[in-house]
Fold this protein.
Amino acid sequence: MTVVHMIGNAHIDPVWLWGWQAGVDEALATLSAAADRCDEYPDFIFTCGEAWLYQQAERLRPDLFTRIQRFVAEGRWFIVGGTYIQPDLNLPTEMALRRQVRHGQAYFQDRFAVQPRIGYNVDCFGHPALMPDLLAEYGYTAYVLGRPGPSQMDIPFAAFRWRGAAGAEISAFRIVDSYAYSLPDLRAHIMQAMAQADPALGHTMCFYGVGDHGGGPTRLQLDWILEHRTAFAGIELRLSSPQAFFDAIAPYHQSLPLVEGELQHCFPGCYSAMGDIKRAQRHGEHLLDQAERAVVALSSDPAERSRHLAKIDAAWNDLLFTGFHDIVAGTATPTAWASCRAMQGRARVMGEEVVLDATRLWAHRALPPSHEHRIIVINTDDVPYDGFVECETWMDFELWQDRFLSTIDGLSVPFQQVQPDVTHRVPRLLFRTCIPPGAATTVLVRKGPPPPIQDVSCDLAVSPTLLANSQLALRLGPTGITGMAFDGRPLLSARGISLQLRHDNTDTWSTATDRWTESLSATLSGGTWEVEETGPLRAGVCMEHRLGTSRLRWTLSLLRDDPRVFMRLEINFDERRTLLQLGIDLATTPVRRIDAVPGGTVQRPLTPVEYPVQGWSRLSQADVEMALITQDAYSLSADGRSWQWTLLRSPPMAWLGDTPPIDHGRDTYTDQGVHDLRFALHIGTTLPDAALNIAARRMAQHPITFERTEGIRRPL
Ligand SMILES: [Zn+2]
């Protein structure tokens, strides 16, 4: 006999083929219908997660909210998940995943006095290896997921043990067929659940209810279940909850099949579509993290500190919402994006306000009065900063002339004027600084004549065909970087590092593939490099050119005596059903590949399969390693010597790959317009994980710099 736990639920996408306002309407309608089912069917239990859904009822239907609170207290309404929404799980940072749990758990504890202990991400596209460790840390015991499905990842039975990268283990259940099922007759759905059930357990789950746009279990479905409780040989249908199921199989936990690490592969098109949303999300998460670090380091007054932290919490609510799995994944309807961008923008401005308030309040409090023109640099990180910073200074329309930088003790600080944002007499300065964790330094802008610079050594060489220092030499050509040598050893094949466009006729999710197999439509050629910076601290070149119908600017720079290549790509992307890729063609096949993922790293095979990556990827040879660090691209493959990063992707929005009639909706393509992406290619004999993690974080969390001219006598 197998007990089939019938789980009445309603998957609700707050944004997908509709905007967030429709998401609120569907949440209220679904929760209301579920409360009515609880009234009508005494044995019915409704299963529902995500604090955001309940917040809508609390705000707009307090009567309904009170009923839900009563059903929860009576055990008729089971809260799963404990997160704010069901987020995308490939792109968010570890801190965003932790915030999902913290904000959700705090809400459910406060409003319902419950602590959900079953993770619930039934529609998310892939699950990171960190998840069991993170869930166990927060007291979770089990997890329910829907994807990847059986055709994407082989798991022997629906119920299994899932072990995380750090070794924590929880019970897990992969929903069979779908979380949503609309037909009144559930026979076929139940039989599919039975086909994936381990007979030895005697229990499995079957999820039913109208989903996606809400709805929930219907009367016809409940009547059907009650009529067929014992209608099938060897099966008992039981109105139930996930908790009852996991309690029933708990004695068999150790006999469940073990699955280790990340649960992939699912919808690789979602790693790159809607790049601007992904980048705003990633940089927004880092901004709020940096704001919190700034408050902790600088705000000593308890009232001031708690005011800042409350504002950061509120800003996170916006980013937790836009972290939803049809927003960050890039799969929503065209009309939804404006509001999503505005929510990300609201979080950004709140984060910027906290950073500004915390730093300026501190500066006024902590820095002595001065008549000098000062540049303040604050290291918000918990490790020392030893590197270069850039900042622009306002000179009252004067030219820089013989001004120079010095420490407050009068020691000259080597600096270089580098490409400013605008041409109108706002110099941009590059200089090196060392700052302890959570501390600040002051650099003075002083008028000449400058003292003699002690350190004038410069190993930089730059021309339209060469960018080099004592460790790295890059040959430049019309296709990009045509050669690169590290201590004289060639690292690239003749194809080098270039940009390419590839046909991509897959749907918005790329549901039917795990790799890009279509042909190239264009490769960069005929470009010329122009020297922009010549040292003594940094040398750089720039190419402005066209690729397909898109205009681009590609900037490369090298610091002196430093084995890193900094790349910036600005592109006005105007391609349809096309991928923009950065191709790195290596001289020899790597022996090992490590990709950073939320909360850690995973070793992955050298394969043409596309994978999501977070922050960096490293390829190792016997005696040299290369790591590409970026917060602006999230999708790659490494196949033999071909290291290929997918930067942009342009299918029609929310398009399932069919060819609808002309009057069934217009095509609007993703990723059109201006994009700005930055990369750092690190090269060394060994590139430790910890150093790469810090470098990746710093790509999004630069030291905070600002001018302090309060109190100075003008003109300068
Ligand atoms: Zn969904």
User: Anything to note?
Assistant: The two ends are 87 Å apart (CA to CA). Residues 337-366 form the longest helix (30 residues).
